[in-house]
Amino acid sequence: MIYQKINEHLGKDIYPFHTPGHKRNPDYVVGNLYNMDLTEISGLDNLHNPKGAIAKTQELLAKIYHADESFILVNGSSCGIIAAICAVCGENETIIMPRNSHISAFHGLVFSGAKPIYYYPKIKPEGYFCAVEPFAIEKMIRNNPSAKAVLAVSPTYEGFVSDIKKILEICCKYEKILIVDEAHGAHFPFYEGFPKSASHCGADIVINSLHKTLPTMTQSAVLHVNGKTMDRQRLKYFLGSVQTTSPSYIFMGVVDEALRRLYNNKSLFDNYLNLLRAARKNLTNNMNIRLINTDDPGKLLFALPDKIQGGEVEEILMKEYKIALEMVRPHYVLALSSVADRAFGFARLTKGIGDLDTRINRAVPMGNGIYTDAYDFAKTEMVCTPREATFSFASETVRVSDSIGRVSAEFINEYPPGVPLLVPGERIHEAAALRMCRIKIQQLKVISCRSR
Ligand SMILES: Cc1ncc(COP(=O)(O)O)c(C=O)c1O
Description:
The protein has 16 helices and 19 strands. The chain is α/β, with parallel strands linked by helices and 452 residues long. It folds into three domains: 2-21 and 266-359, Aspartate Aminotransferase, domain 1 (Alpha-Beta Complex), CATH 3.90.1150.150; 31-264, Type I PLP-dependent aspartate aminotransferase-like (Major domain) (Aspartate Aminotransferase, domain 2, 3-Layer(aba) Sandwich); 377-451, Orn/Lys/Arg decarboxylase, C-terminal domain (Ornithine Decarboxylase, Chain A, domain 4). Bound molecules: pyridoxal-5'-phosphate. The site of pyridoxal-5'-phosphate (PLP) has 14 residues, from helix 4.
């Protein structure tokens, strides 16, 4: 069934403005996948103790990202984030992190037993998060001096970049380890026009999803380490524990060849940036669908007027223009571009968005911020740690309407962007219950009354 569905989709000739970053572009195909599907036989090295070919590729990655040491990940950034949190925080130790982190960071809390201290980046009326201000991090550290580490998500899913250099200075001043979830910024070191990568800034641990914005296979990612504050042996143990003992040579081989080609051939990025600049220029001519200025120009983020919702835009672009988007929210949509995008793809997107823009009644006022899809995470109240709630056996399943005031025993996740609406251990308030109804969740596991 899965295979049939994949082929049905491919038969429709839909252009991907979503991950993976290879965009099925034949110019970026590396080798024959079945032939490359090998294992740790003599000469092919071992991901868990690399001394040969894999060690060499990791050295190349460290060079590209200006890291002291880099580790290939075959289970996405998710496993790198979990390992990083486990490596720096033990049971009941604290980590300062944004409440809008990706779910993998919360899994890191469950695995390690660490306690989160949340900060809350601002939210735009359309519903996407802003970068975090360094002074907000400094304030959090001053108020929580015993915290072991700080986690920053930069860029955000939508392409907003925090001042990592400044945040790192603050973390150094207070002797905190800085972990940067840079899942969406793997392409940064390849072109001067992109923001400086967090690893190049010197952050202690940085995690990149190579597959999101570079021409590699889904699941391929990398973790970088800088400086001497980290216990690398401990990190290596956790990396080993969250990754398979049978890592895919397809993933690793494609990472090696694709990144080597990009690194040695800067003109590939020149071509991409030329196409991107032209597309951005055309897309800014629209009257109603507003192209937002993102720090990462590769993210084409469109704010929608209140006359049309993201779901309709997605449907029209898919059916009439054969375009698939990366993320669709009620008041904005995101098209993700990469070095593997082609001129005809950008042309389709420009035409599709341009036509839609003229179809929207111009007499209707533009989105003016009176509506909001922003969910106020600051209202969440943590009653016990995510680990305590997850491992609590005294739980019961209730209807969402009966859950208000109870404590969640499970994650309720919205994907994309993969930021949990509820984390185990959080009290369920009315807004969370309403949101669950909107995303069609009918029941959830809560901690039993007898235990609380
Ligand atoms: C901010 C952020 N961090 C981490 C991840 C996890 O990345 P991966 O899918 O490579 O595991 C995602 C995935 O969407 C993400 O949006």
